[in-house]
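Lecture 7 notes: from sequence to structure.

We start with a single chain of 275 residues. Read the sequence below before looking at the structure.
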Amino acid sequence: MSTRAGGPEPRFPTSLGMSTASTITLLGEDLANDLMGSVSLTELAYRMVTLCTPTSGQVRMLDACLLALADHGFTPTAIAARLTYLSAPDSVQGAMAAGLLGGGSRFLGVTEDSGQFLHAVVEGLDITPQTPGEWDEVARDAVRETRAHNRIIPGLGHPVHKRLDPRTPALVRIATEEHCYGPHLALFEAIGRVHPEYLGRTLVLNGAGVVGAGLADLGLPVKLLRGFALIARAVGLLGQLAEEERMPVAMDTYLLLEHHAEFVDPKTLVANDND
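Now the structure, written as tokens:
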């Protein structure tokens, strides 16, 4: 086949998966003989995105980040998945997709938002700070600039964990142990230290935000960080659907809303809007 009469055959380059009648290759390696049983899914995700082979420490850190985002109980994403499964039990893919589509600015999105925010600051530095005190000065500039434009600092605060997000010290510890602690985590910790000077209150470092910093320090593309959050949440959603099979709550959730629905005359709403 050609693109036009007498023209060149079309070419679609890829460095990822290829298949023949008897083989499957991935990243140029034999899937069955070289990768299966030797490479974890976490390592494969890193390799497919970066085209580089991670160290064992980088794999451990990425795995910890994915675990940190996998599941948080009855979040809107989990509820959406369960209710969709109730409505269409023949469509596991629909239920999974419903949950993943809810991964936005309020849930899961903070990972990407934090990573991009921190990366923009780090990329703008002429000299990389070497001490916590130097990072504090960079953090002060970043907080002042953000506040001056009436923007929020992504990754500060958590709706449940008001004193400490338990994921935060664990991720920092693992990053340090595996020599994966880099400028993004250093900046985010510094923001955690200095922000009360400008906000007038102390907010926790959200674990999902720390994940964003950790993923950026692993050299992963900041534009794709939400994709890693979705990988993690897909695992959690599958667990939610499995639990819905064992201990269903979706029907009760639906009936609770149905039985407590209260009609509001739309005329009163229009009248209130006009007042």
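The longest strand covers residues 17-19. Keep this in mind for problem set 3.
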